[in-house]
Every structure is written in C-alpha cells, then in structure tokens.
Design goal:
By secondary structure, this protein is mainly alpha-helical. The protein has two domains: 1-157, no CATH class; 160-324, no CATH class. 68% of the residues lie in helices and 0% in strands. The protein is flat, with a radius of gyration of 22 Å. It starts with a helix and ends in an 11-residue tail after the last helix.
C-alpha cells in the first residue's frame, strides 16, 4: 500500500479519480463512454486545466490505473483484515487480550480510508495538488496502522526473551523509533512540497551547510512546513541524527549483554539505515527518479520495521535485579 501510494504520488495520479464511491467505485471504467465520462470529470479540476491540459485519453488511463490500483488495494486489505476478524470474533476464537488491539487496528484502517479521501478532496477545487499537510497525515497514519499490525503480530509469534535487559536499552530503542518516525514525516513534507527537486547537491546545499533563505518566513516555525529550503534541510538533519543514533546504538550493542534476537535486530537496523541513507542521497542527486524515490519510500518502511523489531525483542525481557 505504501509503495503503490508513493508511485501514485510521484506519477501525479492521485487526483485522477475525482469521486469517492466505496462500493460502486470498485468497478473501473469498461466502455469508451465510461472512460470519456471519467476523463470529462478530471478535466473539471485545476490540475488538468493548469498542469495536464495537453493530456490525451491514453495518458489519462495511465494515471487512472495507479490511483485505481491504490484504492482497490486498500479495499482488498480492509476486506482481508475485517472478514477474518469478524469471523473469529463472532465464534469467540480470539483471545480477550487481542480483541481490543485488533478492533483498534480495524478502526484505524477505516480512518485511513477516510483520511485518504480527505487528502484527495483538498486538490479538487482550488489547488493543482493535494495539501501536503494532509499528505503527511495520510502517510503517518498508514505507517501507524502498519506498526500496530506488526507489533501485535510479533507479540503472537515471538516468545518472551529470558535474558534480562536494562530499561536504558528500551528507552534507547524508543528514541530511535521516534527519530525514524520524525524523519519519515519530514520526508513526507519534502514530497508534498516538491522540496527534493531543488538543492540537488550533497553534503552541502548549493555550497552552504544551511541554505540561504532558511528563515525567510515569519513566524520561524512556518518555515519548517512551508519553506522548501527549510523542509529539505530539516529532513537531512533528521536523517543524519537517525543514522548517528543507529550507529551509536549498534556500537553499544557490541559490548552489551543482549538476547541473540536483539543482536540480530541491531545488525538489521544498521544495514537498513545505511541503505536508506544511500537511497536518499541518490534520489536527491539524480533529481528524484521514480524508481529510486519509490525505493527510498520502501526503505523507510524497512527501517521502521527493524526499529520496531529491535524494541520488541527486549519488550518482555525481565529487568536485571539490583543488588540490595
């Protein structure tokens, strides 16, 4: 879902379907008349009039495919989750400890669908693209749903570790998760403001550590969301902080007494972070080619996964006893 959503955004396909029909919208256009009707609806929005005014029907079918695929996959994921959940719930075959977490994930999934339409709606009247604030919210909620599913699944399939781990390791793992999440959200702002299409140099931004015009908007905090120079700089700094934190955590793990699963997770998160940094720099220097940009978005999910797995490997380990 996240990868298809990234392709949909990068190909400017997200506004190709201008209506939200959760049931009848499952069926795509079939006849020439159906396609002509959908294209006519698209021609009414600002994106077509100001950006895609020379688009042919065949080109429209391409962007329609990506948006339709994204919506269809969302429906299929929802059905694949909701139907088994309802079946086992009604048959009372779910452990009580799982009912509320699984129900909460289902509600988040419904909310994600509604938020997706709320995002699309922002680009249908007065804009040529969706609101980058709503785009980031849609991305963050998608990853929250994914993280919740992963956490519950890990709790089902993984045994409780027996080796004691200090609370400091839990806090350190949580700090890395927070940094990863903030970096992903900042990356969403980069995508939503098209900040990756400028300052395509590294490590400096057109010869400067801090780009010119970083604080040109007032109040200062507005630059972090609206100023493309500040948006890209902040994403770079958060990525650097995340990479540094991962390296320090990995180095500390070499000397610490940790469960074997935690050690494997540390190696995995280091590899994922290094790959993600390489993908990010390559995407920037090559001015956001779609395959690399999609890989960078997928890499963010992989990095988040490794961070969550690391935290889970020490989740239920008994704390070391303090001598009295």
């Amino acid at each position: 879902m996240v990868v298809i959503g990234g392709i949909t955004r990068l190909t400017l396909s997200g506004l190709s379907i201008t209506e939200w029909k959760p049931v009848v919208g499952v069926l795509p256009p079939f006849s020439s008349a159906d396609w002509a009707a959908e294209f006519a609806k698209y021609k009414q929005i600002p994106e077509y009039r100001l950006v895609h005014y020379a688009m042919s029907l065949d080109e429209f079918k391409t962007i329609y495919f990506w948006e339709y695929s994204h919506r269809l996959l969302g429906r299929l994921v929802g059905i694949a989750y909701a139907v088994p959940f309802a079946w086992f719930l009604l048959r009372r075959q779910l452990p009580r400890s799982l009912v509320l977490p699984l129900a909460g994930i289902l509600l988040l999934g419904f909310g994600q669908g509604a938020l997706g339409w709320y995002m699309v709606e922002s680009g249908l009247a007065d804009r040529t693209e969706v609101s980058h604030y709503r785009l980031v919210a849609h991305l963050v909620l998608a990853l929250a749903v994914y993280a919740a599913i992963l956490w519950v699944a890990l709790g089902i399939v993984r045994r409780r570790p027996r080796q004691a781990v200090s609370v400091g390791w839990r806090r350190a793992a949580e700090a890395v998760i927070l940094l990863v999440a903030l970096t992903i959200a900042a990356g969403g702002l980069v995508a939503g403001t098209h900040a990756g299409l400028i300052y395509n140099t590294f490590p400096l931004m057109d010869g400067r550590l801090v780009p010119a015009g970083y604080d040109e908007l007032q109040p200062l905090w507005l630059n972090w969301f609206e100023n493309v120079a500040a948006v890209q700089f902040n994403h770079r700094m958060l990525a650097a902080a995340t990479m540094t934190a991962v390296i320090l955590l990995w180095a500390a793990g070499l000397r610490a007494s940790l469960p074997s699963a935690a050690r494997r997770a540390l190696h995995a998160i280091l590899a994922a972070a290094a790959l993600q940094v390489a993908l990010g720099i390559s995407t920037l220097l090559l001015v956001v080619p779609i395959p690399l940009a999609v890989g960078h978005q997928a890499g963010a999910v992989v990095l988040l996964t490794t961070a969550l797995v690391l935290r889970h490997t020490i989740r239920n380990a008994p704390r070391p006893r303090v001598p009295t």
